[in-house]
## 1
Amino acid sequence: MSDRSASAATPENDPVSHDLFGALPDPQVQAPRPAEQPAVPGSRRAVREAAAAPAPSAGSVPAPSAASGDGETAPTEHHDTSHATLEALFRHETEQPPATPKRKKRRGCLIALLVVFVLIAGAAGGGLWVWNTYGDKISEVMGWGPAKDFEAGQATGNALVTIKKGDGGQQISQALYDAGVTKTSGVFYDMLVKDNVVTTFYPGVYKLQLKMTAAAALKALDDPKNKMQNSAVLPEGLSVTETISRIAQSVDVPLADLQAAVKNPADYGVNAPSLEGWLFPALYEFQPGATAKDVVSTLVQRARDSLSAAGVPAADEQRVLTIASIIQREARAEADFYKVSRVIQNRLDQGMKLQMDSTAQYGYGELHSGSASTSDAAQTDDNPWNTYVIDGLPKTPISNPGDKAIDAAMHPAAGPWLYFVTVNLDSGETVFSTTYAEHEAAVKQWQDWCKANPDSGC
């Protein structure tokens, strides 16, 4: 008999016991479990089976405890099974659902983190696209990014700015930026529009400073003291046609008069087919009332001064100016002038054609086409300037060289080079080669750069 059936209080006499015991499952209607599936120790089933087991009689020897490690019997205490059954009941009634396994929790957290990461990455990617596409406009509207204008008080040094006839606000704004006066190319023009500035800009050369504010530059251009009277700035590498055009734009001398003045080189003691190469590039300020011939004579005399300073004999002036004009057009950096001069001299000494693109471009009329590459038509055109076709030097110089190019023509660097190519048009990096195989590798380098920089003027 079990301890529960021997209790003094029965379910029929005690209402509380009736409710409690009524909730217990009837052991007689439970399906029998196979003997090979014993109850799990500590489970509710184990408690019920312990409660239903008959109490041991006095003097009996309990079975060895599973907790005995050496075969000795462990003492067993006798408990009231009704209490055990009640304890199991209350544990059954108040028991919480089993906790979610930690592995499933970790998996759920990982999935949640992945979802959040994907959302953040998507938002970041979208934001990056928007910024790359519209960042400049957003910065402009919000006032972010670097300042477009120099700060007051930064002005230093000297700068020359040429305003040509017909120049408007946009052209002057670009000229100020090119001369290093303003920080950005559009800041001066933007100021004119924003402040509704109405003024007249007179052609000529103006003495300004570097790193001026747009407002300070405007004030300086309006000051007659900063305008050089009857002046012109002529950069290196221009042809005769371009030179006299620039003079007419800033000096009070008609272009037609200048065109007539350059027709006869003998008027200036020059024994050459033209004055190409003889109109020296520099800053000029002419006397009031100077004529076209006065202007041209001044430029030719300045070229003679440079030839004399470089030690050029009178008999070699035309030849040296021709070589110097090629150097001026071919070399991207002054540091390479003397090496380009050596390549020209080495090829002439070995009886090789010069094959200089600048000469082909000049002879075909595309010297200032804006491209470093020579067209097939120009390269194959049979004219006395195209060194891809003719032997030796071109018929005349192809541009007006400066002091450095003239000196380089007289004093080439020492070296075995026969080829050169500029592999980076932005930096001017140039590779000089001795063999054609080396030159081909350098040309490939230039072609790769041009592919990566399609708007660079290749």
Note: Residues 102-142 form the longest helix (41 residues).
## 2
Amino acid sequence: MSTSDLTFDFDRQKRLGLPEAVLCAGKSVAQIDAAIAGAAARSLPLLLTRLDGESYRRLDPDGRRLDYDAASQTAFFGKPPTPTAPPQIAIVAAGTSDTPAAREALRTLTFHSQGATLIMDVGVAGLWRLQARLDEIRTHRVVIVVAGMDGALVSVLGGLIAAPLIAVPTSTGYGAARGGETALAAALASCAPGVLACNIDNGYGAACAAIRILGSGAT
């Protein structure tokens, strides 16, 4: 695959209100660099997802070109505007093992100048942790729930809040968790009405869904 294989969608912002991001997994450093060059030529910022540390170091050896976050494997080319409004989106993660997907959602929202509140380690194994943050969670217009293993946090929180809830099942867990398939099935089969489910570990997709919901005027 060469750099000529890339056809970047620079008009996506006009159509969807969301610019195209670069999924770096499976792309060569040269291809990623070509996408950055295309954005630079148009004076546009660019979000890079699933950018591993080795590729980042090759793209930005002096650390001045990209804003890189190792936990989420995301990078910004160009600085997005700082959010001025109070956070409207909460990202609620069951455990610290769910950090990569939770931070991918957070960084995606940051890139799109959306404020967000990140609430970590409130899984159902200690319900008092969730109860202590419930009033805070309810102040947000959209809630993203990130959970692996049995994914139980999705249904529990889905029965406690009125805001749109977007589930991100993660690949966290032992054998029967099946790389996130169990959590995904739990989200799809949730008895909490109206739960939306993204694919496994897809924090980026969940953040984009939240932005679309806010853009639709949902309260």
Note: Residues 3-77 form one domain.
## 3
Amino acid sequence: MTDKIAAAWAHLQQVSQATLGQLFAGDATRVEGLSGRIEWDAEEGTSGILFDWSKTHLDADLIAGFESLAQACDFASKRAALLSGEKINNTEGRAATHTAQRGMGDAADVEEATALHARMGMLVEAIHQGALGEVNHLIHIGIGGSALGPALAVDALARDLSLVDVHVVSNIDGVALEQAFAACDPATTMVAVASKTFTTIETMTNAASALKWLGENGVSDPSGRVVALTANPEAAVEWGVDETRVLPFPESVGGRYSLWSSIGFPVALAVGWDEFSAMLAGARAVDEHFASTDGAANLCLRAAFADQYYTRLRGCQTRAVFAYDERLGLFPSYLQQLEMESNGKRVTASGAPVDGPTAPITWGGVGTDAQHAVFQLLHQGTNLVPVDFIASIAPGDALDPAHHAILLTNCFAQGAALMAGGNMAADGKDPARAFPGNRPSATMLCDDLDGATLGALIAFHEHRTFCNAVLMGINPFDQFGVELGKKMAKDIEAGGAEFDASTTALLAKAGL
């Protein structure tokens, strides 16, 4: 840690902490000052997302302090390095070029992404037009980012119109694959195998079982029904996939940042190329805001300021995310990987031990279900948990408008109640009915939930994650923490390895 960074943190630790009620009472322009929109062109004018951080404890002094911290951390140059395709992933000697998939980055990276998108688009169109025979189902096999992103996008966008029925399988537990088999007709099913290296054991084991299922159910050429999504096309061809159905993506696109690449193939197949393109365009709108806006006016950086305040200065170990929209039910799970795999580190980018907490535990659920489960702890528990609310002004259903009105009023009321607190007893004196209040939340209010909006939401959180990493001095683009357990699992499979007494006993009990 440099002297300037240490001084910035020391200053932040001395900033007085007013309550949320005091902050609102003392600033009539607080909502306007801590809210902002990111917009993009839509069929009828513009569309966008409102980001309201006014119910957090950020104030002018904290924001000034965090802006000084960002300067001390050289945020502007690190942002430029990310967006220009420099090797910002220093531990692996790679760039992180996911924004190039959306049209922002080094010219050569953008040109490559455009060409690979065109190749994917032609295959999607060919399938939709019947060039590969009747295709009604796709079993998409991956794990981690190559499964979570497609699962989220298909669940969010393909409920009303699904051109191809997509089933995402990630778990090596055969129950997951059998469930997909039961929902598909093998005669009209294709299989997408998503693996950066095309060696991931869970993915390749599931893929082999899927081909066996096709062959046992009358498909004469199972390999001819496979599309490979990979950064190692040679391995896919060697495995048996025809090169015309191999959709590559660059090695510099990390798994949890890969939805924009050929990993998005099942999304385009399910909802059409136009909707996938809209998802890219929504993400690009956030990229442009992130690239061109400085200080706290940069909404991604402002969110990171709040994240660092609660994690580092208030000791919050978790952050909760609640989507008041059934279509975003998988969003908290998606963010778990994005944020915890990116920023759950114990050393800085230079290899030195970190001197404070890094990523909080991300968790959440869907409103209003969560209100009848975990909100008890949020309102009256002893843990301070910052909360993010996500909602759409436009409903996703055609039922009585009362459904959506109740949904939104519950969403907004929860944020208000967390902040205000109170006592629900008639005399206002019952401690069991007391709510301390002064509990923070932020709200992301979407005009609608479509491809562009989903793309913007995901890109916002990608950049928020990067901003947090810069403020903590860590590398968000490696993930060595997932490797040790995998290595030990391989050691067990190979035999001969020695383990602790507990693990040895468990292996014996399971007959392994």
Note: The chain has three domains: 3-94+277-478, 107-271, 480-512.
